[in-house]
Amino acid sequence: MQQARKWLRDAASVVVLTGAGISAESGVPTFRGPGGLWRNYRPEDLATPEAFARDPELVWQWYDWRRALIRRAQPNEGHRALAELERRKEKFLLVTQNVDGLHERAGSRRVVKLHGDIWRVRCTACGAADRDERAPLPQLPPRCRCGGLLRPDVVWFGEPLPDSAWRQAEAAARSAELMLVVGTSALVYPAAELAPLARGAGARLIEVNLEETPLSALSDCSLRGKAAELLPRLLE
Ligand code: OAD
User: Fold this and answer.
1) 1, 62: one domain
2) Which of 33, 99, 128, 147 has the highest Cβ tally under 10 A?
3) Tell me: the pLDDT tens digits for 164-176?
4) pTM of the entire structure?
């Protein structure tokens, strides 16, 4: 912890990559592991373009349920510590795989969302995208003003990441002095490529996770425990 704290304090440029684990203490379920969403639901039924084409109402029911759950959640000390880290660093980027918006609610501003935003909807007919923070939604599946079917503006399995988000994340990873990876199983690509990329370009790697991951062996330091407890300590 002491060594990691010093590395973080001394780094002139920092990139943070977060996954579902950072929101676990806010009561938002992760995807894998105990209590994970993919233990009870099959991604191919709910989080693919094919699933949506087959049964948009079912997919929306699942998203509507998650939106209501996230609406009740509050950012935790881990989210807040990352917002504080951003205030301390001139060169900083927070790259998240999360769609819950809790980083922004905690005060983070320089955020890149690799997997979209659960509070945005996008029309499958005319392409118009908009924010819609109602939870539950009054009608499922929701419709666009043009009559087209709206979908959650998130990235599903088999879909490419938003181009500019990926480019920003990649550029930041290549130039960062230090990358902090928090609460991700590092199993989903291309997000999982960012840490090896940063490492290959000379960055130090600090991991914060309850468990060992494929990134642990690559990391200069792996801190085991809850993000909401470890991140505030890392900033002390
Ligand atoms: P996962 O559910 O795969 O992994 C969560 C990670 O967080 C695991 O490594 C846990 O050990 C760790 N963890 C859990 N609670 C923690 C805590 N309190 N503090 C620290 N670590 C904790 O979630 P992601 O890696 O984010 O994609 O999953 C990546 C992507 O897979 C998601 O964005 C989503 C999913 O399918 C799409 O929907 C496209």
Assistant:
1) no
2) 99
3) 999 999 999 999 9
4) 0.97
